[in-house]
Amino acid sequence: MLEALAAGAVGLGAASFLVLGAAIGWFARVPAGAVAGVMAFGAGALISTLAFELVAEAHAVGGLLPTLGGFLAGAVIYVLADLALARRGARARKLSIALQSEPGVHAAPAASASAGVGLAVAIGALLDGVPESLVLGLSIAQGGSVSIPILVAVAVSNIPEGLSSAAGMKHEGRSIRYVFGVWGGIAVISGVAAMLGFVLLAGAGPEIEAIVTTIAAGGILAMVANTMIPEAFASDRSFTGLWSALGFALAFALYQLGQ
Hints:
Elements: H1 2-27, H2 32-62, H3 64-86, H4 109-112, H5 117-143, H6 148-172, H7 176-201, H8 206-235, H9 240-257
């Protein structure tokens, strides 16, 4: 029970960076290039983490078929949910909404088409955060302690999302109580998801462990490919690749140091 609560606390802690991003988006104007750099760095860290800590280890424990099956299932689930949210204005949820709050920059077409786009962005953040939180819980179930590379990757990738959504909601005229109520709720749900990840994997057989782990990994990779890298590149075409490589290198170094 204590370990499950610890997993929930870790998930809540990582999701608190969404709230931090929301605070930055509400109270400050951040250059689009800086947001894109953080996003690209987080994307690289997530790719490194899911490759070395999730998929490779799931294969070592459960074998090839459960690993591939879970990974592809996670990607399909994420993409279908993402398509549904895109119709409500949450396609460009990590960056383009934040640009609304910058002087001289016009709102993205999706944002101007829907008065509720900020909320759709927040729901999209929840969709992105669930597999990440599950992975944090899984890492505790597997090793008895949180994986530092996973925690760093999730925390860094959460900041631009909270920033963009809060800026979009402010642009729509939402109150500060509404904005931080939404993001506080998402942080709590993320903590519950991390606890669920621990419960699902604790005591599970190797095949189930591989499937559950790679469902989360497949969802994360689909999220990175659908939102983080394209939107970072759309804002900063010069350094997106470099920031992504640095994020990948840092996560890989942390993984190797923890071996």
